Every structure is written in structure tokens, then in C-alpha cells.
Structure to design on (540 residues):
């Protein structure tokens, strides 16, 4: 029996096994297939030719032993989400989810939370400059055998002896200083993106991690998402050929997506430690909008480059391993939300990688180099997929994966000529949620879902990737090992985002010297001062 004939006799079960555990493989059609049976045969043949493996990574280690004591630094929107990911939900959230499930049987958020694995941790401490946030932690997470303690400053918390690890979910300008203090106190760190707010502290944080040996995980949870793990295998097998262009996008068009967060009714100089919030930022009078909507100002946040570009950069970096770009050009402006903010709401970024290659099916030396293009608008929510464009194929990437053979492909030329492949129909599709009912309603939620940030799948079951990402961090603390988004990945993310921010603010190309590991400044330029200057653009 020939190899091709043996493929035709594969059972459906054998085929799924050959795909290493993929819950669902999408339908693939072929222009040359005359019947349904022929189409199935062609599909089996091509899937073996592609040999794409979508297996999840090996499970992280056991969660037994003494509970890990966790301190929460910053319990705003993201801090509360991270706490839920490790099994701690506020009383208010649990009641709201129970009501939502009673009204809509398809709303499984509370059920999934209750079924989540016990990670064997204790939240023992909190530091938040807003009394309301800190008090919610004390009220919801304290128990008879575990009274959570509030600390006035992060330094008091990390040096208190009451925590083994901290979760940092504060405004960007506090990320690195808090992480460095924690590491130097012998405390492990989970830190939200962007990892740092300026260039110099990116190096200082890297030094602190390397010197202390403590585990730092950056909060890019999409590294746990099944579709991205599948994409890694597609790139490793050079199915796309040489990838010369990557395009990825952010489109949001609502107040929440534009960082117009709610301002709490109890906010006042009496309930917020304003001086501590400001920290290294310019000293300005108490301002509730700056406190709750801090992402809109360079003094506290990093705008589109640090908040949203970082997601797309890192999810492509985890697939391509392209690292820091040789140069970056950025442009844009404040076009849709002229409300006093000084970070752009429209941004276009070109990152150049002149020496990068994913492999080639053409003669050696013909292909080299790649451009990574990111564009964003906070004034339109039309869905624009991420595309990785290679000589042999194009991959459309989100929570699903589709591959299209290129009509001029070298690798697939014979099959295209024979009519076995149609360049306008996917030759491979992966959709882990094809049979799932997901309660996603808001435009912002849909945006995050398609970025692989809200859920992924393991063995056909929907799982929160933030839970998996934090479990990995906890496993590294308990059992050793290297986190998937550690200090090197965080360093690459931060430097790349800062190059984009600098280019936007200065209005010129920003270059990276890989030998010295430095962003190239012109004589007299203070790049950090330019980057965090609390104004839209800087004239130098």
C-alpha cells in the first residue's frame, strides 16, 4: 500500500490524533475535489503534509506544599481581575455573577470561576492608595484564619515578612520601582505590562532580576493561548516560507476602550493618597480624572504604544522570536478624543527587522528582512485581523488560525497547479471555540477575546489564559523553571514599546544598536525625559 493510500484509510480518530489534541479542526475545501469523499481524502493528505502540531505545552508543576503568601499592590480594574485568576473574587463580583447566571444560562463565568483549580495561595497583604480599593480587599479576602493586612506603602509591604510574592497592577510609572524594591527584598514578582515606564529603569529591573534570582513574570497571558502555540509550530515548520510583512491592529470605539474609566463617587483628597500616586510624576493638584483615567497621560501611562501595542508585539514575538527591532517609525495624533489627554488615540508604527528570516523555500540569500506594522484607532471598532505574510502562505491569527497558500508559492506550486489547493480557500484552519457558547457582549471584550486575552482551550475545555499564566508563575516559584514571559521577554517588549513612544513624540526614526544594547540618541538628547514628558510631542 502506498503512503498516499494509507492516508486515505486514516480514521477520523487517527486524524485527530495526528493533530496532537486539537479540539476542533475547521473545514478545508479543495478546488480539485469533485466529491465529499475526495475532499476528505485531499484534506487528510494535506494535513499530513503540513504536519502542524497544536499540542499544549507540558503542564506546570504541582501546587502542593505550604501556601504561597501573596501581596496585592494596586487593586483597580486589572488588580481585581488578576486576583480572580488566582481564586479570589470580591463579594460584589460573586453576587453580580450569580445574578447574571440566573438570568442567562449561557453565562458560565461564575461556574468556571468556582470550578477553577485551587492554587494553594493566600492573599495576605494589600497596598492601594485609594481607601475604597484597599477596603474591598480586606472585606472580601480576609477570613478567620487569614486576616489580610493593609500597608500604607509598597516598601512597607515587601519588607514586612508577610509575603513571598507580589502582584503589581498599578499605573505604569510605578511598575519598575515597585518591582525592583520587591526583588531586592527577596520577593517574587508578577508585573503588568508594559514592564517599565522609561528606558533606564528597563535595564535596572533586568539587573535586579538577574542579581536576585527571583521569579518575574510579565502579564502577557496570551503566551498561554492555544492558537498562538499552534502558530509557533507553523512558523517552526516554515509553512509560510519567508515572512516579510506582519500587520496587526487595535480598533476600539467606546469610552472604556478609550480609557474613559468610571470615576468613583467616594474619590476625594481624604480617600486617595495623592502624593503617593504621583510618585515621580510632575506635582499637580489633586485631579480625579488623572487618578482614574491615568492611561491618557504620558506622566503615568504609556498610551497606545505601552498599553496596546505591547499586547500585539509580544504575541507576535512569542511566535516569531524576532526580538527588538533595528529601527522604529511612528506617527499619529489625537483625532477622536480631544478631551485633554496627551497620548495619541490614533497610532501607526513600523518596526524594521532587516536581518530577520523565518526560513525560505527559494534560493539561499534571496529573502531576508521583515517589517512589523501596528496601527490603532480608538475611534472605530471594525475588526481587522492579524496577518503574517510569507512567500508560501499567509496566516490569519487571532483566537483562531487560518492559513492560505500563496498563488506564487514555491512550496505549494505543484499542488496549486494540480488544482489540489485553492489559494483563496484556507488550507488549514483551527478554531477551538467552534462549538462553544461565549457570553461576550461589549466591543472591548470582543477585542480582547480575539487577541487571545480572555480565554483559551485545554482538552476542549475553555480556560482563562490569565489563570494559566499566573499558575505558571507560581509553579516556577514552587518547582523551579523559567516563566514564558520573564525578564528577557519583558526587556524586549519594553524597549520596543519605548522606541515607538519616542518616535511618536520626536517625529523621527528611532534606532537600536544590538551590539551595545542601546537606543541610539543624538547629541544632547535625554531620551527618558522625552519619553515621559507630560506633553503630546516634544521638539528637540
Amino acid at each position: 500500500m502506498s503512503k498516499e493510500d494509507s492516508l486515505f484509510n486514516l480514521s477520523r480518530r487517527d486524524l485527530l490524533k495526528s493533530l496532537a489534541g486539537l479540539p476542533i479542526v475547521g473545514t478545508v475545501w479543495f478546488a480539485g475535489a469533485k466529491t465529499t469523499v475526495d475532499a476528505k481524502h485531499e484534506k487528510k493528505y494535506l494535513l499530513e503534509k503540513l504536519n502542524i502540531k497544536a499540542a499544549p505545552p507540558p503542564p506546570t508543576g504541582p501546587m502542593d506544599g505550604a501556601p504561597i503568601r501573596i501581596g496585592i499592590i494596586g487593586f483597580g480594574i486589572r488588580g481585581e481581575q488578576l486576583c480572580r485568576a488566582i481564586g479570589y473574587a470580591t463579594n460584589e463580583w460573586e453576587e453580580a455573577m450569580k445574578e447574571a447566571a440566573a438570568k442567562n444560562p449561557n453565562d458560565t463565568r461564575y461556574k468556571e470561576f468556582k470550578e477553577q483549580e485551587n492554587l494553594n495561595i493566600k492573599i495576605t497583604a494589600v497596598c492601594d492608595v485609594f481607601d475604597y480599593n484597599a477596603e474591598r480587599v480586606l472585606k472580601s479576602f480576609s477570613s478567620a484564619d487569614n486576616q489580610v493586612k493593609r500597608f500604607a506603602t509598597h516598601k512597607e509591604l515587601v519588607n514586612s515578612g508577610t509575603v513571598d510574592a507580589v502582584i503589581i497592577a498599578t499605573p505604569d510609572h510605578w511598575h519598575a520601582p515597585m518591582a525592583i524594591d520587591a526583588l531586592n527584598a527577596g520577593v517574587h514578582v508578577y508585573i503588568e505590562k508594559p514592564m517599565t515606564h522609561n528606558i533606564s529603569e528597563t535595564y535596572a529591573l533586568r539587573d535586579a532580576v538577574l542579581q536576585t534570582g527571583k521569579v518575574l513574570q510579565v502579564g502577557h497571558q496570551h503566551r498561554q493561548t492555544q492558537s498562538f502555540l499552534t502558530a509557533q509550530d507553523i512558523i517552526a515548520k516554515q509553512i509560510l516560507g519567508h515572512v516579510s510583512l506582519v500587520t496587526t491592529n487595535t480598533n476600539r470605539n467606546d469610552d472604556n476602550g478609550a480609557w474613559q474609566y468610571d470615576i468613583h463617587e467616594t474619590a476625594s483628597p481624604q480617600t486617595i493618597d495623592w502624593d503617593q500616586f504621583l510618585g515621580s510624576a510632575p506635582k499637580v493638584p489633586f485631579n480625579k480624572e488623572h487618578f482614574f483615567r491615568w492611561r491618557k497621560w504620558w506622566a503615568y501611562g504609556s498610551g497606545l504604544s505601552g498599553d496596546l501595542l505591547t499586547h500585539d508585539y509580544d504575541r507576535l514575538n512569542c511566535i516569531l522570536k524576532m526580538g527588538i527591532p533595528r529601527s522604529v517609525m511612528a506617527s499619529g495624533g489625537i483625532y477622536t478624543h480631544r478631551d485633554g489627554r496627551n497620548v495619541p488615540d490614533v497610532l501607526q508604527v513600523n518596526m524594521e527587522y532587516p536581518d530577520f528570516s523565518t526560513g525560505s523555500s527559494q534560493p539561499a540569500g534571496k529573502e531576508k528582512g521583515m517589517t512589523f506594522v501596528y496601527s490603532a484607532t480608538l475611534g472605530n471598532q471594525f475588526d481587522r485581523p492579524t496577518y503574517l505574510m510569507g512567500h508560501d502562505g499567509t496566516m490569519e491569527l487571532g483566537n483562531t488560525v487560518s492559513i492560505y497558500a500563496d498563488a506564487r508559492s514555491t512550496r505549494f506550486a505543484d499542488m496549486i497547479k494540480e488544482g489540489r489547493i485553492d489559494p483563496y480557500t484556507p488550507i488549514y484552519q483551527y478554531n477551538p471555540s467552534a462549538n462553544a457558547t461565549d457570553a461576550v457582549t461589549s466591543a472591548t471584550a470582543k477585542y480582547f477575546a480575539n487577541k487571545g486575552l480572555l480565554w483559551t482551550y485545554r482538552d476542549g475545555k475553555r480556560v482563562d489564559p490569565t489563570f494559566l499564566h499566573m499558575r505558571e508563575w507560581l509553579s516556577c516559584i514552587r518547582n523551579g523553571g523559567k516563566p514564558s514571559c520573564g525578564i528577557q521577554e519583558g526587556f524586549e517588549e519594553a524597549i520596543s514599546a519605548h522606541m515607538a513612544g519616542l518616535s511618536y513624540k520626536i517625529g523621527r526614526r528611532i534606532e537600536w544598536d544590538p551590539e551595545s544594547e542601546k537606543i541610539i540618541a543624538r547629541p544632547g538628547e535625554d531620551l527618558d525625559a522625552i519619553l515621559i514628558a507630560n506633553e503630546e510631542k516634544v521638539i528637540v
